[in-house]
Design brief:
By secondary structure, the chain is an all-alpha fold. It has one domain (10-62). The protein is built from 2 helices and no strands. α1 (10-33) packs antiparallel against α2. The longest helix is centred in the last third of the chain and has 26 residues, at 37-62.
């Protein structure tokens, strides 16, 4: 399976995943501090999304995609 120009590299997915995890954790903690369940939930969702994207990058690396 070859990577084409429209496909993100595994490294890009892992970096973007880590970025989403970090920003999500910041939103979660900010939501807790300002007592905003909505912001806290958005942060939790973003952390989950980041973990999924990071895992996709790891899988791509295994299959050399």
């Amino acid at each position: 399976m070859k990577s084409n120009e429209n496909t993100k590299s595994s490294t890009t997915d892992k970096i973007e995943g880590n970025s989403k995890i970090m920003s999500g954790k910041i939103k979660e903690e900010t939501g807790k501090v300002v007592r905003s369940p909505s912001l806290e939930n958005k942060g939790s969702d973003e952390v989950f999304e980041g973990r999924v994207q990071k895992k996709v990058g790891e899988i791509k690396k295994v299959f050399n995609a």
